[in-house]
Amino acid sequence: MRLMWARKLGLMMAVAGFCAAAVSSAQNATSAYDAAKHVFRLDGGDVTYAFGVNREGQLQTVYWGARLRADDPLNQPAPMGRPFELTDTPQEFAGWGGGLTTEPSLKITFPDGNRDLVLHYLSHQVRGNEIEVTLKDIEREIYVTLHYKMDGQTGILKRSAEVTNKTHSPLVVEEMQAGSWNLPRSSKYSLHYLSGRWGGEDQLQTRSVSAAETVLESRRGFTGHEFAPWFAISENGAVTETAGKIWFGALAWSGSWRITVQQDELQQVRVTGGFNPFDFAYPLEPGQSLRSPEFYGGFAAHGYEEMSHLESEFQRAQVLPQAPHPRLRPVLYNSWEATEFRVSEEGQEQLAEKAASIGVERFVMDDGWFSTRKDDHAGLGDWYPDPDKFPHGLKPLIARVHALGMDFGLWVEPEMVNENSDLYRKHPDWIIHFDGRPRTQARSQFVLNLAIPEVRAYVFGVLDKLLSENQIAFLKWDANRNWSEPGWPQMAADRQKMIYVRYIENYYSILRELRAKHPHIEIESCSGGGGRVDLGVMRYTDEVWTSDNTDPFDRLSIQNGFSYAYTPQVMMAWVTDSPNWYNHRMTSLTYRFLSAMQGSLGIGADLNKWTPQDFATAKQMIAEYKAMRDVVQHGTLHRLASPQDGSNFAATESVSPDERKAVVFAFLHSEQMQYPAPVVHPRGMREDAVYTVRALGGNLEAGTPPKASGAYWMNHGFSFRLEGDYAAAAAIFEAQP
Ligand code: GLA
User: How does strand 725-735 pair with strand 690-696?
Assistant: First the structure.
């Protein structure tokens, strides 16, 4: 379908009124400008995005949705507004000025007190799958360049904006967004977003979009657990997993961010996102620029599944550090829940031996290995191995892990410092704080101010040293608290708020530089569980820690929410002990495995407590996982039955890209009144191929045929025999040659 469009488009551009059309064949995306109508257009995947210059000179959205024919009429947009409502025009990037009452993308205060900014089209460049448009204030030398880049595979559009001060005086940017996404006018939309907290991330929420503004944001300095920087807007009532139109987007920023969804007085819906303007002020000297975070947006015509599929494909092919072909995640073992801070060389080696015996590929030593770290009150900041626990450094343990056939990973929390640490005693002014004010501690720690060049150099230095001196394949980079008292006293008073941008830029640059210098390194983004998951950090990290809540039942809804925005490739899920430390729930080892096998599998249990039977189960499940992980991590996800809202039954299915393999995971919360488990109808198989089926971890209902066509499985369906509480099983389908 997509390829067909791309080929047709190449031919049709010739007959349409679009000149300067460029077809980027490698990417199947095009960009074009129709000079007669002043309309720009980008096409990619099954999506068309168009905007134009209206007669007032503003940049106005024309269309965003399913792909149009190349010769379809896209007319110059007309400004909107009525006598008492001056400025409802759906602008791509509105300056705050000229009576604007809708969300601005840019707000500036000039030194003379002027705060009026009216941006008009100045010039553009169209090349390949990209468009750049420059806007200028109607009077002052303020230039804004808007960047658009269309992905040919998925139709996901990347947008950002850069403001440059070409006046002769400094000014202050008080609000900087990537721009606005304007949806087709309608009063019948629903907004979907992910809310959460520590141990309860990514809960899918839905509310109708009405005459009001909804604000999703973080004011915490980091991405945060509270909301994911992601949105999806669907047509009311018309959207299911497999049908209906959805517009969706995600911000690539790991600091304080904001996304607003506003329905204005003419019932137009605009989504605006970028730096959080709360407490924001970024001074620009003459000649200086500020670039907004990138804001990605996409469109799916066939329901939530298609949206997730496009996002997943895009993140793997365009965002992740190993894009376009990120390698499959190795099965890892992490020692945290087994030992917490009670780390020793001998204890770690014992765990490593046991982990290797079940097929683990990567052994990760978590918190507790360094300095005086016996609990969470001391040691953060002093990144050398605890001489009592590791008298000969990390090398002997790493050598043992290698000898066992695994690679070695290490937990670090480089942005943090305990009051009780050499680093804090030496540099108490290196943390984020206001002079003379209390310094709020959380988990007994402060946040180092990475915006300070010396702090950035220190953090890079300790990590570089660890990686240079030891054969470390993987870092779990944690950040266990949010900011407080966000001061930067070393800076002049009017420059301190730059911390919101500079800190995160330095954080990214450390990750970038470490990866460049140590190209084999892989990194996990963790922040007290899933507090730092966004498309910004995903450019530099290979996976994310989904949640500290490792209860396999709670995880079903956390993972379900996660899957609406992010690829299963990066979703780390561990098998831990029962009863679970977080909520004391008891579940079988099989249930725990099947829950975790829906993402990137890890083991986080205390292997010293396992029985021979547990080892045998784990060995079998890990072998099964290795055989199916390409399907789970790179396949298409189908959410067959949602675990949300008190549901008693949940099921997901992953289908391989060639549709020859599928795996269905099913979970019964509680058997009630002896009702049999629901019938499952898998999707995405080839109707005419014949698939064998076998059960894993449980049983299929008696009478289930050992093989049948895709049409049979999808239409007739099948069921599992699930009995009792917290019962789980999987079914593995393979097409016959
Ligand atoms: C955070 C992480 C955990 C673990 C601890 C260690 O809570 O999310 O997985 O690493 O820190 O202190």
Answer: antiparallel
Q: According to the model, what pLDDT value does residue 3 have?
A: 35
Distance between CA 534 and CA 566 in Å, rounded? 9
Q: Is the pLDDT of residue 158 over 70?
A: yes
Options 2.40.50.1070, 2.60.40.1180, 2.40.70.10, 3.40.50.2000; which CATH number does 640-735 get?
A: 2.60.40.1180
534: CA distance to ligand 1 center in Å?
A: 19
pLDDT digits 0-9 by tens, 32-83: 999 999 999 999 999 999 999 999 999 999 999 999 999 999 999 999 877 6
Which parts of 247-394 fold into alpha helices (H)?
A: 303-314, 336-339, 345-357
Rounded to whole angstroms, how far apart are CA atoms 128 and 29?
7
In the numeric block, which tokens belong to residue 257? 């961010």
Tokens linked to 109 = 């205060």
Question: Do the domains 640-735 and 366-395+404-548 match in fold?
Answer: no
Report the C-alpha gap between 49 and 641 in whole angstroms: 33
Place of tokens 């975070």: 293
Ligand 1 pocket mutation pick from 198, 201, 335, 336 by most atoms within 8 angstroms of CB: 336
Give the count of alpha carbons within 13 A of 605, CB side only. Answer: 27
pLDDT in tens, 249-297: 999 999 999 999 999 988 999 999 999 999 999 999 999 999 999 999 9
- Pocket lining: 367 vs ligand 1, CB cutoff 6 Å: yes
Of all protein residues, whose CA lies closest to atom 4 belonging to ligand 1? 336
Residue nearest to atom 6 of ligand 1 (CA): 367
CA–centroid distance, 512 to ligand 1, in Å, is 23
Report d(CA 568, CA 316) in Å as an integer.
10
Task: Check pocket membership of 34 for ligand 1, CB cut-off 6 A.
Answer: no
CB-ligand 1 contact for 409 (6 Å cutoff)? no
Distances (CA, A) of 29 to 152, 429, 597: 4, 50, 35
CA distances from 516 to 456, 464, 519, 522 (A): 16, 11, 5, 11
Question: Is residue 366 in contact with ligand 1, taking CB distance under 6 Å?
Answer: yes
- Percent composition of the chain: helix, strand, coil (DSSP 3-state, to 5): 20, 35, 45
Nearest CA to ligand 1 atom 11: 528
Ligand 1 mutation pick, 201, 411, 550, max ligand atoms within 8 A of CB: 411
Report the distance separating Cα 701 and Cα 533, nearest Å: 39
CA distance 634 to 636: 7
CA angle 598, 601, 606 (to 5 degrees): 125
Residue 90: cis peptide before it, omega within 30 degrees of 0? no
Q: Would you say 589 and 557 are in contact if contact means Cβ atoms under 8 Å apart?
A: no
Give nearest CA residue, ligand 1 atom 12: 367
Pick among 3.30.420.40, 3.40.50.1980, 2.60.260.20, 2.70.98.60: CATH of 2-185+246-298: 2.70.98.60
Indicate the DSSP class of residue 428.
Answer: G
Tokens of 646: 């008190």
Q: Taking the mean position of all CA atoms in its chain, how far away is CA 680?
A: 29
Give me the residue spans of the domains in the chain.
2-185+246-298, 366-395+404-548, 640-735
CA distance 619 to 358: 4
**Superfamily in which the 366-395+404-548 domain is placed by CATH:** Aldolase class I (3.20.20.70)
Name the percent of the chain lying above pLDDT 90: 94
pLDDT exceeds cutoff 50 at 708: yes
Does residue 411 have its Cβ closer than 6 Å to ligand 1?
yes
The answer to whether the CB of 334 is under 6 A from ligand 1 is no
479 Cβ below 6 A of ligand 1: no
Please tell me the distance from the alpha carbon of residue 85 to that of residue 282, in angstroms, as a whole number.
31
Testing ligand 1's pocket by substitution, the residue of 343, 365, 367, 545 carrying the most ligand atoms inside 8 A of its CB is: 367
Q: Kindly report the pTM of this predicted structure.
A: 0.95
